[in-house]
Amino acid sequence: MRKAQAKKLPLAPDPKFNDKLVTRFVNNLMWQGKKSGAFTIFYTALEKVNKQTNEDGYEIWKRALANVTPAVEVRSRRIGGATFQIPSEVRADRKISLSIKWLIRYSRERNGRSMADKLAGEIVAASKGEGAAFKKKEDTHRMAEANKAFAHFRV
Q1: Tens digit of pLDDT for each residue in 79-126?
Q2: Domain boundaries, the chain
Q3: Whole-prediction pTM
Q4: CATH superfamily of the 35-62+90-155 domain
């Protein structure tokens, strides 16, 4: 175990929108250290979103992230030989992390020619409150609601 918690390295904002959240998203999207390729995929996806909806792709992406962001989740806790799913609030940093990971994961699972097409489709769906990433958030909330009887076990 660590003596002290690891220091978070500061993120450089992205070149186009000057937003650190975009850099964080691209870092999760990136494979094998190919950051410029990930930026290309992201910016292309936003252009496709722009063409599909005739609105600003960046704003729609931010709305999609907000729609996918969970407020509560369940955590397993072993009490007296039984494992309980205990609902708990999600930390602010983890909320963003989960929403980014879900958007990217379900984009990769979609049908489409390129990753930019898949990502654009998932962003548009999530901004409307549809799609697999949004469904994941709904399922997480439903699970927490179903297990709220065990909330008194919270640490």
Answers
A1: 899 998 999 999 999 999 999 999 999 999 999 899 999 999 999 999
A2: 35-62+90-155
A3: 0.91
A4: Ribosomal protein S7/S5 (1.10.455.10)
Side-chain half-sphere exposure of 76, counting CA atoms within 13 A: 4
Please identify which residue in the block is written with the tokens 């929108």: 17
Secondary structure (H, E, C), the chain? CCCCCCCCCCCCCCCCCCCHHHHHHHHHHCCCCCHHHHHHHHHHHHHHHHHHHCCCHHHHHHHHHHHHCCCEEEEEEEECCEEEEEEEECCHHHHHHHHHHHHHHHHHHCCCCCHHHHHHHHHHHHHCCCHHHHHHHHHHHHHHHHCHHHHHHCC
State the Cα–Cα distance between residues 125 and 109, nearest whole angstrom.
Answer: 14
